[in-house]
């Protein structure tokens, strides 16, 4: 009859079973995939935009936005630790016994049942045999024990490589140690305090000094991974820990000041190094510590490692020429902006705020048409947002220097309405002096009704022939064409064509209109140059292209969204360096576990465990050889065959004198 | 008294031949020379890697003479290339020897060609059941490996010719590590070829190597990714020199195991069964490959964690690459548990090893292609 098994016994059996362990490894692997597919710890709005409110809430509830810190994931890890621990507890005594014992009590009967056993004839006296076999085993690096058996037989029980058994214990304990280290560095204490209502994530955008104590982590916090951004010349003694859609403030036991931040570049324009000169002040120090932090070279003070993590603008001062695209006058005016600050434009219902968000001194872009050329630095750009009175904003990215695109130079400005969109780019052609002025004046000409009339009359005058009524008609339709374009660009033009021209002639009409428009614009350009006391532009391909590009840009401006073009003229760079500050008491545990893991793995794979029994049977004049291993591999067959052969040669009887 | 000859094995040091000693002395001399000349470029860790490499390759050469010959061959051809360059990169496209043989691009192309030929020859040998043809295939594989290593060594030198601050070990982007992958997988295969005394698996293993060759060709001709790029700041660390090779011993072994698993599954169904090694041999080889891969993959992941602790501020960030490394590790951990503890053998493990290759490939390539993260050095 079977003895009844208690429930706890059954649970223990399950948790410490191989099946359970392998299932857990597989489950953990699959669970880990989620976090690599779904971007983790993004701002919550990104998820809402991407997946919609319903799925966002679903994901959040399931903890999928931060899988690796979700309760259910930690439970899987916990089970892995329990399972591994129980495995060790269950198997270690056996392993240690296997490691120690020689199994010298094996009986002949049991040895005869081995798959690897053989009898070798041996005619010498037991004493000589014992000596010979002992020497043989020693030379093969076996350790052994000898046992006299009741029937006059002598058993030599030998073992080799039983340290392999320690490999099992090492690897499994290693996993527990690594998980323990990881747990020390996890945010479990905060989670517990949050559950108890002692701590709360701060979501408001307020100064760090105003963050209440319930959202602060003290200087004695055991473990953290926090970020700090310091503009050049400034100092701070707090860092921020990002949690879900908010943050916590981590108070530091010292103050960090950023003296200087440097980026060095390779000849290709790629960044070569990011370096921050910092100064640490601490009441416990008589004088501040100066240190330089680079990527791969953190500085550690009071158990807190400070890493170079990123950089951003720390409030660069920008000088713009602002072009009011709706104004009748064409000259831009100068305004200043400071990154991370705001300004306002216009008044009343047209009032707009401008937010200067970002400035980048170097932009490595690949502008070759086929994308196969070499990327190079195209100079600074700035990102700004224009927000109207009702709060709607458009984001613009403007390059300071003209970019070379398809062999021509353009002032480039990207526009988008939401963060999810790609930028749509406006290309304003640079004039022969690499300035934007040529375009702005031409545009002004083509927007002024009086000038439009002048242009039309000038072009008509240049018409060959002397049919006055034809010329007048031509002048009128040219004027109408220019006014239409002024009204709404190419789309207005095609609307007119569609309403007035039969379908089969539209293509041709459009061609003609565009040709005329270009001709008129060229005239306008020459006239605008004359007004600016500039010599006429040469009538060559470059000028034609410039005029064509100008018309395109004018057309695109209808979709630019706001009537302001910010032309970046000059800047004074002020950078901010981003640091990561970590205190991780678990690190050394993890490393200890890692070393054990590697030692254990090598012991398990590369120490071959072998047990050999040599039973000297004087009565039968033979030695019984049996060999076993805890792993039945091909090696065992080979080793057995080799040993059998060697033994035969060792025991070969020499004719006794 | 009768003392048998075979009882006392000679000690390790006694077993070394004259050639072994000359080889080791040459390596050490090379190490000292490099140290004297280039110590200013190295930190203390890199100096230890230099002499560690001398010890490692001495040992490997002693245990496996073919490796000693390979190392000497690589050294001679690389030095010849360095000499031909005369310190001027332009010579690479002018001097005959460099342009057609030893400049890194040329040497890598030779490697590609030789690997393709080796694969075809191995398959021919398998169908002909010809030992001679198989030997030729081995020789071609060795030659491909030789040219691959020469290509990497010369590329290392070329990178310093571009500019001293650009110079770095050529294992920093996908193009370079694919070459490394081919070489390591090939060496692992050649090792097993000798250990198991069988050349019948060459055709199978060379398939995965040639897949990598195909990638290198596409990457070179379509993407022009073969040009030497300077290192981004995050990669400027001595850790790269140990983390990356360890990782590729892992990837290489897992790929090799999967190819053997493929052979196993075919043989089990009677396909080519008479031409392939016995099933238990295939099974054992698959285990050995996964064991060595697992050991090195573990080391690589740990080294990666240590590097991450120095570069990114934490030894584990659940970055996609890290997470996929963990998934690969868990996969093979489960495999080894089933084999070692449960004693499972046969088709299930072979299928698992094949699926393992998919997981490994995703960790190696898929993460770079589809997921973004801190490891975005080799994008497609």
Question: What can you see in these coordinates?
Answer:
The complex is a heterodimer of chains A (657) and B (380). Chain A contains 15 helices and 26 strands. Chain A is an alpha+beta fold. In chain A, helix 7 (164-185) runs antiparallel to helix 14 (587-606). The model of chain A has no long low-confidence stretch (mean pLDDT 89). In chain A, strands 14, 15, 18, 19, 20, 21 and 22 form a seven-stranded antiparallel β-sheet that branches. Chain A has a five-stranded antiparallel β-sheet with strand order 1-26-25-3-2. In chain A, strands 4, 6, 7, 8 and 9 form a five-stranded mixed β-sheet that branches. Chain A is elongated and about 140 Å long. Chain A folds into five domains: 7-97; 107-161 and 617-650; 199-222 and 224-314 and 576-583, Sandwich (Tick-borne Encephalitis virus Glycoprotein, domain 1); 333-426, no CATH class; 440-536, no CATH class. By secondary structure, chain B is mostly helical. Chain B is built from twelve helices and no strands. In chain B, helix 2 (44-63) crosses helix 3 (65-85), helix 5 (104-128) packs antiparallel against helix 8 and helix 9 crosses helix 12. The longest helix of chain B has 33 residues, at 279-311. Chains A and B meet through helix 2, helix 6, strand 8, strand 11 and strand 24 of A and helix 10 and helix 11 of B.
């Amino acid at each position: 009859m079977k003895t009844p098994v208690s429930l706890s016994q059954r649970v223990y059996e399950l948790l410490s079973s191989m099946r359970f362990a392998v299932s857990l490894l597989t489950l953990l692997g699959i669970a880990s995939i989620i976090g690599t597919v779904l971007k983790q710890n993004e701002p919550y709005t990104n998820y809402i935009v991407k997946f919609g409110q319903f799925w966002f809430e679903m994901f959040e509830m399931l903890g999928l936005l931060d899988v690796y810190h979700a309760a259910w994931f930690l439970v899987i890890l916990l089970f892995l630790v329990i399972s591994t621990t129980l495995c060790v507890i269950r198997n270690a005594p056996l392993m240690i016994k296997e490691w120690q014992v020689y199994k010298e009590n094996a009986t002949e009967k049991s040895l005869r049942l081995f798959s690897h056993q053989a009898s070798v004839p041996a005619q010498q006296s037991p004493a000589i045999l014992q000596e010979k076999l002992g020497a043989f085993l020693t030379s093969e690096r076996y350790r052994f024990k000898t046992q006299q058996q009741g029937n006059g037989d002598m058993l030599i029980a030998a073992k080799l490589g039983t340290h392999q058994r320690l490999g099992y214990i090492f690897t499994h304990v290693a996993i527990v140690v690594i998980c323990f280290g990881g747990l020390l560095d996890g945010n479990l204490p905060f989670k517990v305090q949050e559950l108890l209502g002692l701590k709360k994530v701060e979501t408001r955008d307020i100064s760090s000094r105003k963050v209440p104590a319930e959202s602060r982590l003290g200087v004695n916090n055991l473990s953290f991974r926090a970020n700090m951004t310091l503009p050049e010349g400034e100092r701070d003694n707090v860092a921020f820990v990002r949690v879900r859609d908010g943050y916590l403030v981590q108070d530091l036991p010292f103050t960090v000041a950023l003296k200087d931040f440097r980026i060095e570049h390779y000849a290709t324009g790629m960044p070569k190094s990011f370096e921050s000169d910092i100064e640490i002040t601490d009441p416990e120090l008589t004088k501040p510590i100066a240190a330089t932090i680079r990527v791969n070279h953190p500085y550690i003070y009071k158990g807190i490692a400070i890493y170079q993590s990123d950089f951003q603008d720390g409030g660069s001062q920008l000088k713009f020429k602002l072009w009011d695209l709706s104004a009748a006058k064409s000259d831009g005016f100068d305004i200043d902006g400071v990154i991370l600050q705001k300004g306002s434009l216009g008044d009343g219902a047209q009032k707009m705020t401008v937010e200067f968000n970002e400035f980048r001194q170097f932009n490595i872009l690949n502008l070759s048409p086929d994308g196969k050329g070499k990327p190079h630095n195209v100079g600074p750009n700035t990102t700004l947002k224009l927000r109207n009175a009702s709060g709607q904003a458009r984001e613009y990215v403007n390059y300071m220097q003209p970019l070379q695109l398809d062999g021509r130079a353009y002032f480039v400005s990207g526009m988008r309405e939401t963060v999810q969109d790609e930028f749509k780019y406006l290309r304003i052609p640079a004039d022969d002096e690499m300035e934007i002025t040529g375009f702005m004046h031409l545009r002004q000409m083509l927007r002024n009704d009086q000038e439009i009339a002048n242009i039309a009359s000038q072009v008509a005058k240049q018409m060959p022939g002397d049919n006055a009524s034809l010329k007048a008609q031509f002048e009128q339709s040219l004027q109408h064409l220019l006014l239409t374009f002024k009204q709404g660009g190419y789309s207005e033009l095609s609307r007119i064509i569609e309403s007035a021209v039969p379908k089969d002639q539209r293509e041709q009409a459009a061609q003609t209109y565009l040709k005329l428009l270009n001709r008129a614009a060229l005239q306008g350009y020459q006239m605008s140059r004359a007004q600016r006391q500039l010599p006429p532009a040469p009538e060559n391909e470059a000028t034609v292209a410039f005029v064509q590009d100008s018309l395109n840009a004018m057309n695109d401006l209808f979709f630019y969204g706001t009537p302001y073009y910010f032309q970046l003229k000059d800047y004074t760079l002020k950078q901010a360096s981003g640091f990561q500050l970590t205190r991780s008491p678990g690190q050394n545990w993890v490393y200890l576990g890692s070393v054990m893991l590697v030692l254990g793995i090598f012991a398990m794979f590369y120490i071959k465990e072998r047990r050999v029994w040599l039973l000297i049977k004087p009565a039968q004049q033979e030695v019984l050889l049996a060999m076993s291993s805890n792993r039945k591999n091909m090696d065992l067959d080979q080793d057995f065959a080799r040993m059998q052969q060697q033994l035969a040669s060792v025991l070969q009887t020499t004719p006794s004198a | 008294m009768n003392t048998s000859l075979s009882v006392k094995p000679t000690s390790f040091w006694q077993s070394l031949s004259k050639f072994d000693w000359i080889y080791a002395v040459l390596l050490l001399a090379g190490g000292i020379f490099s140290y004297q000349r280039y110590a200013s470029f190295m930190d203390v860790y890199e100096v230890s890697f230099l002499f560690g490499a001398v010890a490692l390759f001495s040992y490997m050469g002693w245990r496996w003479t073919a490796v000693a010959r390979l190392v000497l061959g690589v050294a001679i051809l690389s030095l010849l290339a360095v000499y031909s360059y005369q310190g001027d990169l332009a010579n690479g496209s002018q001097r005959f020897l460099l342009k057609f043989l030893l400049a890194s691009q040329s040497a890598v192309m030779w490697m590609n060609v030789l690997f393709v030929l080796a694969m075809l020859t191995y398959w021919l040998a398998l169908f002909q059941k010809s030992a001679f043809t198989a030997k030729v295939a081995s020789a071609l594989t060795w030659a491909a490996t030789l040219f691959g290593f020469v290509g990497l060594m010369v590329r290392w030198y070329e990178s310093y010719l571009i500019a001293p601050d650009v110079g770095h070990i050529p294992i920093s982007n996908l193009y370079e590590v694919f070459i490394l992958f081919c070489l390591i997988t090939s060496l692992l295969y050649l090792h097993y070829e000798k250990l198991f005394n069988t050349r019948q698996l060459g055709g199978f293993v060379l398939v995965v190597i040639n897949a990598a060759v195909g990638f290198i060709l596409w990457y070179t001709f379509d993407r022009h990714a073969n040009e030497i790029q300077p290192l981004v700041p995050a990669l400027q660390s001595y850790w790269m020199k140990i983390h990356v090779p360890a990782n590729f011993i892992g990837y290489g072994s897992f790929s090799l195991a999967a190819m053997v698993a493929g052979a196993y599954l075919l043989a089990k169904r009677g396909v080519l069964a008479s031409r392939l090694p016995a099933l238990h041999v295939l099974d054992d080889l698959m285990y050995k490959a996964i064991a060595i891969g697992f050991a090195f993959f573990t080391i690589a992941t740990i080294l990666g964690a240590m590097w991450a602790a120095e570069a990114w501020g934490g030894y584990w960030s659940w970055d996609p690459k890290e997470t996929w490394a963990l998934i690969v590790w868990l996969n093979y951990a489960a495999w080894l548990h089933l084999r070692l503890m449960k004693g499972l053998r046969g088709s299930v493990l072979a299928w698992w090893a094949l699926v393992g290759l998919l997981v490994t490939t995703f960790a190696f390539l898929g993460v770079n292609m589809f997921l973004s993260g801190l490891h975005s050095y080799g994008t497609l």
